[in-house]
Every structure is written in C-alpha cells, then in structure tokens.
Amino acid sequence: MADGTITLKSGGSAATVDVGPAFETTARVNLRTDIWADSVTIENTGSGSAVVNHRGSDHMTISADGNAGGITIRNKSADNATLVVGLTEDQKDSGARVAVMDLITYGAPVIIENQDAAGTVMDIKNHGAIMMQMGNGIPAQITGNIFVDNGSQICLTIGGDGFVHADTLKLTNGSISDIETFGTSTWSNRDGTGNTQAAADGVGSILSMIAMGHSTINADGVVSNGAVGGFHSDDYGIRNGDTTITGEGFAYDTRIPSESYTYINGHGQVNGNQYTKEGAKNTVYVMDDGTLTGNVVSDGVGKLDGTPSVTMVGSGANAVINGDLTASNSGTMTGLIMQKSVENGNVYAVSGGKVTYYLSGQDAQFPTLNGDFVSESGGSITASMNGRWNGASTVSGGTTDVTFIDANAVWNVTRDSELTNFTQGAGTVNFPAAASGFTGTTVTVDGNYSSDGGAINMSTVLQGDTSAHDELDIKGDATGTATITFTKVSGYGSETIEGIKVVQVEGASDAVFTKPDSNRLTAGAYIYDLKKVGKDWYLTSQRDPDAPLPVVPDTPDTPDNPDTPEQPDILLPTDPTDPTAHIVKPELGSYAANLLASNTLFTMTLNDRLGETRYSDALKSQKHSGNI
C-alpha cells in the first residue's frame, strides 16, 4: 500500500499485524473494531512511525490471550504518538460517548513504546480513555511521554517486574489518571535513573499515583490551578520525588517521598496523611496561603538503614497545617513554623522519636501552634519559639524542653502541663482564664527553670492558705527574674499562716518573682502581697517583719503648749497570731475615724445651740453683742 495505512474494519482480526516498510514513512492502523488474538504486534521496523489511532466514540479492545507474544506496539516518531485515543474534532462537542481503548493480556507482557528520545507513547485527548488490564503478575513495559487532555482518562496497572519510563506525565483540562504499581515494578524517567515529571493542571484534573507491594514510583508531582493530586504508598511501596501543590491545587492521601520536598503554596491544599519511613529525609513546605490537612509522620518501624526524618516547614502569609506532627521509633521530625503560619494539631515524640520544633517569626508576623506537646517512652521534643502557643504539654517517660527566644513568645496554657526544662526568657505564660468551678492549673517543670524578665499571669481565690490557685512547680533549680500578675477569682479575705503557695522550688531557689504595684489584691479587710518563704513564693496577708515601720511626725511646739513627749513605736508585734501582724487596708483607719467623728459631730452646748447674744443700746441707738 502506497500510503502505508492499514484499516481494520468490522470483522477484521489478526494474530500479528506488521506495518510499515523498512524505510522512513508512517504506518497507521485505524482501529474501528476489536482485535482478539494470541499475540498482537504493531510496529515500524524502520525509522518512521507506527501509530494506533482510535478516534471514534466506540469501545475498542486489543486482547492477547496466548502465553507468548502478548501485545507489542512500537513507534519511532517524535511527531506522532504510538497510541492516539479520543473523539474527533467533530465529535468532541456533539455529546458523543467517550472513546475507550482496552489493552488486555493474560499470558505475555504488554510492550508499548516510542523509541524516539522525545517521543510520545500515549496521546489521550477529547474524552478518550486507555484502560490496561493485566493478568496476575503480568508485566507491562511502557516507554515514552504520556499526555492526557480535555476530559480524558488513563488507567494503568503495572505489576510484576514491569516498568514505565516516561519523562513526562501531564494531565490537563479535567483529565484523570488512576495509576497503580505492584510487585517489583518501577515508574521513572525515560532512562530509568531519575524522576518522571508528573503534573495535573486545571479544575477537574485528577492525578493519582499509588505504589503498592515492593514497587517504586519515581515522580516529581505538580498539582496546580484547581487540580487534585494523590501520591501514596503502602508500608512496602516506595514513592520518590518532590511534590508541589500550588494555585489552589489539592492533594489527598499523600505520603512524603523519600529524600524529597513537598511544596504547598499559592492557596494549594493537601488533605491526608504525610508519612515517611526508614532511611528517608524529607521536607514539607507549607507557604503563602497553602494548607496541609492531615498528620505528618516520621516512623522508624522496620527501618533498614539510616534514620527516617521529616522537616516540616510552614512559612509565609496564612499558611495552615491541620494535623499532628509525629516522630516515632527513632524517627526524627524538624518542624519550622514561621511568619504568620498556623498549625492546628499536636506534636508527638514517642518510642525514641525526636522532634525539633521552631515557632519563629519576625517583623510583627508571628506563627501560632494550637496543640499540645506529647513526649512518651523515650521520645524527646526540643522546642524554640517566639510565636504563640495555645496548648499544653504531657511528659510520660520522655522529655520536652521549651525555650522562649524573645519577648514575643506567648504560651496560653490550656490545662495542667509538664515540661522537662523551661527557659522562659522574656516571654509570657498565661494560665487559663478562671472558669466556673475554678480549681487552679499547675505547670510542672521536672528540671530547671529560668527567666529573664518574663511575665506570668495567674488566677487565685483570696482566702486562706488552701485557696484554689494556679501554681508553677519547679522540681529543679530556678534562676532569673519574672513578674507575676494575679487575677482575683473570688474570696472574702482571711488571715494566712504561710500563705497561698504560687511558686514551689525544690532545687536551688535563686529566682526572684515580683508582683507589680499596680496589681493590688484585696479581699475583705486584707491586702495580699507576694513574698518568699524559704525556697517558695506565697501570696500572703502577713506583714513583712523587715518592712520599715511608719514614722510618727513630731508635734510642733506652740507658745502655749509644752513639748509633747516622744511617741513610742506601736507596730512591733512578733506573735504570728497577733492580728496586727497581717496587712490590712489603710482605708480601715479612715472608716474608724469617721465613725468616731459622727458620734460627736452634733454634740453642742447651750451656747452653741443659742448662739451669740445680741441687744440694742436705747440711748445711743447702737447694736451690741456679748453677755449681759
């Protein structure tokens, strides 16, 4: 045939179809019917192209049932794809059905390739679809770039020791991929040494790649402009490569690839768990309005070599992480939550896992952690922050060390908490706002505590020594200075014996805690102040015995009065049960004086009541006053 074209019409079938001469030309097989045979071979043995072109709205099948030969379609053209499937230009807008090509083999492999280095192996467009169904363990071998466009679909199952060698897998304009690898199969770039560039772009486009069994997918994924992506592997499957979610793209059920980077930015979203295992070192970036929803896990279970590690980075404006960060079984996690990023989830270090966590911002843009620190069974958390932490800390056989970088660090405590070591610096600790039924909250530091002008805000009931109150309990040493401001919850005031213990120190107690003068605490007749007794610090109504006594001024001399004898000091009680040893409101003196004055204010003599006597002199017609 002069034009090198073979058309198989209805009823046509062939065991082997050889097309194209041994010189450069194009051999085209236009398939409008099914091919059922023991083996099917369509190839160009020269330097031209062999194209299988299914451009109708029919469902077409190529099936090889034999145990030898399978399906082989080879092409050598950079200008023409090896498989072209889709509706024609006239059909695509007419409501015609999808053009579907099924490749089925049960005994021998499917081999589809474009041997040109820049060639395309599959071009699926205009609502076309390619479905590959393989018998158990039957490998597929696919070489060349893959393009899926305009509402088309590709469904590939690669098993056995099969492979896909493609520099590019691209889905656009609402197209869908469903790709699964099993057995020991691999997916990689054309020469088998690097990563495929896998991309989904546009609303409705869906890119799904799943590595199962002991298979490997080497692919850098890009999901953008409203597309959806999912990159997943089971406990034995491996997926290597970076992932970028941008331009309002979405990714679901995505596991972190080994030795890779995941970028989520420009309103991109990832929904699903991020997971890494043995020997992997990975970085996840959530930036510039990006959102990660799901747990990020670094798990060393069954590790072969190396230590699994994840670096979790949230940065830029309004980046959001919704999920937990976990390092377990000797896995390591580094969390960098920066600028105005927000993390909604807990941070776990369990079974030897190690977490290094940074909550850091600058230029009035500070990140937020809404969640707890949990270290268990040999896990360790080291946190440095100058952002806002809304949460608590639990230590159960692990360690959690927290350092406030500067005065911008704020910890809003949500419940009783425990830390191993706490360096407060100039940061702020806010105990929970008192609610109905207030019983107080305790922050326990198992090791050492230090502060450099930090602020602590507590609540307390103002009564006796057993009043409900917040407390800082330091098992180790305490150094530095901090200011404690108290909020009165309730209380009618009472004499204290030791006081209300608000800071307990079991080690060296060198820290100095002060209460601002503006933080005046009164209840009933009593004023409460902060004082140190032994190693601990108390709120007490007991007067400080070292406080200076009030000075009684001398009475000035007058011509008619002799010098007033020196008044003795009257405030020298030492008996702790003496009520004058407690601080009482100075207003009480004015109150007593007013009572005394009110009792004598209207006590008057007859002269006071009658007033001065006035009379008139009849002789001189003058008025006089005085006694008669």
Q: What's the gist of this structure?
A:
The chain is mainly beta.
Describe the structure.
Helix content is 3%, strand content 48%. The chain has a 45-stranded parallel β-sheet that branches. β59 (614-617) and β60 form a beta hairpin. The termini are far apart. Mean pLDDT is 79; it is low at 1-25 and 301-308.
The biggest sheet, with number of strands, parallel, antiparallel or mixed sense and barrel status, is: 45 strands, parallel
Question: What oligomeric arrangement do these chains adopt?
Answer: single chain
Nearest-integer average pLDDT:
79
Could you say which overall geometry the principal axes of the C-alpha atoms support? elongated
**Strand runs, count:** 60
> Class by helix and strand content?
mainly beta
Unreliable stretches covering 5 or more consecutive residues = 1-25, 301-308
Gap between N and C termini: 160 Å
Q: Report the sheet-strand fraction.
A: over 45%
Helix content: under 10%
**SS summary, helix count:** 2
How big is the Rg?
42 Å
What attributes does this structure have?
2 helices, 628 residues, mainly beta, 45-stranded parallel sheet, 60 strands, seven-stranded mixed sheet
Q: What topology emerges from the helices and strands here?
A:
Layout: E1 5-8, E2 26-31, E3 35-37, E4 39-42, E5 49-54, E6 59-64, E7 70-75, E8 83-85, E9 99-105, E10 110-114, E11 120-124, E12 128-134, E13 140-143, E14 145-149, E15 153-158, E16 163-165, E17 168-172, E18 176-181, E19 186-188, E20 196-201, E21 206-211, E22 216-224, E23 228-233, E24 238-240, E25 243-246, E26 250-252, E27 261-264, E28 269-271, E29 274-276, E30 281-287, E31 291-293, E32 296-299, E33 309-315, E34 320-322, E35 325-328, E36 332-338, E37 342-344, E38 347-350, E39 354-360, E40 368-370, E41 373-376, E42 380-385, E43 388-391, E44 393-396, E45 399-404, E46 410-413, E47 417-419, E48 421-425, E49 428-430, E50 442-445, E51 449-461, E52 471-474, E53 478-490, E54 500-505, E55 512-514, E56 521-523, E57 526-533, E58 536-540, H1 587-600, H2 606-610, E59 614-617, E60 622-625
Parallel strand pairs: 1-2, 2-5, 3-6, 4-7, 5-8, 6-9, 7-10, 8-11, 9-12, 10-13, 11-14, 12-15, 13-16, 14-17, 15-18, 16-19, 17-20, 18-21, 19-22, 20-22, 21-23, 22-24, 22-25, 23-26, 25-27, 26-28, 27-30, 28-31, 29-32, 30-33, 31-34, 32-35, 33-36, 34-37, 35-38, 36-39, 37-40, 38-41, 39-42, 40-43, ...
Antiparallel strand pairs: 54-58, 56-57, 57-58, 59-60
